[in-house]
Amino acid sequence: MNHDYEVAIVGGGHNALVAACYLAQAGKKVIVLEKNKEFGGATKSVYAFEGIGAKLSRYSYLVALFPDQIKEDLNLEFETLSRTVSSYTPSGNTGILINRIYDKESSDSIAAFTSNREDSDAWERFYQRIGEVARLLAPTMLEPLKNEDEIRSLLGDELWDEFVAQPLQVTLNKYFKDDLVKGIVLTDGLIGTFASATEKLSNICFLYHLIGNGTGEWRVPKGGMGKLVEALLQRAKSLGVELRNGTEVTSVESSSDGVNIKLKTNEELRCKILLSGAAPKVLERLTGIKAPTFRDGSQVKMNMVLKRLPKLKSGMDPKKAFAGTFHIDESFKQLEMAYHQAKSGEIPDVIPSEMYCHTLTDPSILSESMQAAGNHTLTLFALHTPASLFDRDHDLVKAEVSKRILAGLNRYLAEPIEDVILNDALGKPCIEVKTPQELEAEIDLPRGNIFHRDLAWPWRTQSEQGKWGVETTDDRIFVAGAGATRGGGVSGIAGHNSAMAALERLAKSN
Ligand SMILES: Cc1cc2nc3c(=O)[nH]c(=O)nc-3n(C[C@H](O)[C@H](O)[C@H](O)COP(=O)(O)OP(=O)(O)OC[C@H]3O[C@@H](n4cnc5c(N)ncnc54)[C@H](O)[C@@H]3O)c2cc1C
């Protein structure tokens, strides 16, 4: 076969671009084929509202998992900023404030809320333990997969039992007494994952949320998430990667001497190796390679632009309350209740969600006049709203879910959020809501699953036997996106690992 490219990559999300840069740096001829007009997939920044100078991270918004090593290897101009506050959780007329660095103010806040120091002391011990896990696991993410025994001896039996062997619920009950404190911790086991705290899937999700770069710190992408895409595109261009947007791949056929790709434009391309930055379910449609089963995406994302920050019933300074993650109705019991209601097909009465104000850490995503006017952005991520809820009557359910989410937020505000939402140039309120179905329609996330499929333990298991966690049943085709083992989130890890696998395959033979 006459090959047009050594490697072709389906999809132009951030992972695909990371893979393309590594491959081009190794001297390979690479093309990236992205269906949409813009590259970036779930890492796009956009001006979402007519005439409003706010460039929003439309989908993903915080970075923890992106290893510094990738930034250095690819020489990327991309900066992330620390938040001063980790989280604020209102409850009635009071709340719990946790600063990014767990200090006296944070531990006093938990102690005042729970009326004793048990949970405030436990918090420190718990996060020291998970910090240890992060330090040990993070360096393995860009290496060939270790097996379970190797990871177990790396972590030691105690950490293994607490964070891997026992369901998260058991470990949370061991450390914490208070329902709200437990819930705040549990949320990291549920973001993007439709699970109960009794299921191992929440342990896996928890690990991904706490081990990033060896610290688990969630940082703000300076200038918005789209800056990562810009940096990657710039690097890819300078390395000679061919970048084609508005180019949908419609089928892929692999044979012993190469891979044939058909595009919607009826063009055909030939390559030696194909990487899929699109989800495994999309790859299944293109090739017939079976995707793993996975749960529905279960979040609703809301983006808002505000005239100013709203006041809180608890009296907490909004600049503090919204600077970190603002937890709404996320006690342990509320989270479990919402999960079980949604699982049985009902819209949860109380929808747990969390919210965050990007502009308190990085005002640069607003125009100068908006900054001067005191405008802000809010991004809200609601849990336990699976795609299945919206299947029957999408628009009606979307309206009801949105109403309940905003009612939840308003329970803690001294003034309704609707009163402080800015209007766009057409007089419409600056609020957009994305259901799982809309995420699938816009960026091909199957059933709106933000990780392309269920997250998997970041080591070799019975269901994952490949060397890099990116292999498929076809030795010319690799998964390069979030659906790889160790792939979920804005991490570039799947991109790096698929590039390593492709280079090894190319070195073997043509
Ligand atoms: C609402 C939301 C909030 C999130 N928040 C965070 C967060 O704050 N932090 C975090 O770390 N992670 C977050 N995530 C998860 C994270 O964004 C994703 O896991 C990650 O961006 C996936 O990147 P990717 O490059 O693997 O794939 P994607 O970004 O999904 O890109 C895949 C690309 O493939 C393209 N494609 C699909 N089919 C074809 C085809 N046939 N032909 C050509 N192109 C095709 C798609 O258009 C898309 O551009 C969030 C995700 C969502 C949706």
SSE inventory with pairings:
Layout: E1 5-10, H1 14-25, E2 30-33, E3 45-47, E4 55-57, H2 68-74, E5 80-81, E6 85-91, E7 94-99, H3 104-114, H4 118-137, H5 148-155, H6 157-165, H7 168-175, H8 179-186, H9 200-210, E8 220-221, H10 226-238, E9 242-244, E10 249-255, E11 258-263, E12 268-276, H11 280-287, E13 300-306, H12 318-321, E14 325-328, H13 332-343, E15 353-356, H14 368-373, E16 376-382, H15 387-390, H16 394-410, E17 431-434, H17 436-443, E18 477-479, H18 493-508
Parallel strand pairs: 1-2, 1-12, 2-9, 6-14, 12-18
Antiparallel strand pairs: 3-4, 5-8, 6-7, 10-11, 11-12, 13-16, 13-17, 14-15, 15-16
The structure holds flavin-adenine dinucleotide.
The biggest sheet, with number of strands, parallel, antiparallel or mixed sense and barrel status, is: 7 strands, mixed
Q: Which distinct ligands sit in these coordinates?
A: flavin-adenine dinucleotide
Cα gyration radius (Å): 22 Å
**In the CATH hierarchy, what is the superfamily of the domain at 5-43 and 222-294 and 460-508?**
FAD/NAD(P)-binding domain
Q: How many E strands?
A: 18
Name given to the CATH architecture of the domain at 5-43 and 222-294 and 460-508: 3-Layer(bba) Sandwich
Mean pLDDT over the residues: 97
* Unreliable runs: none
The class by helix and strand makeup works out as alpha/beta
Share of helical residues: 25-40%
Shape: globular
Oligomeric description of these chains: single chain
N-to-C span: 10 Å
User: Count of DSSP helices?
Assistant: 18
Tell me the name of the CATH class of the domain at 5-43 and 222-294 and 460-508. Alpha Beta
> What share of residues are in beta strands?
15-25%
The CATH topology of the domain at 5-43 and 222-294 and 460-508 comes to FAD/NAD(P)-binding domain
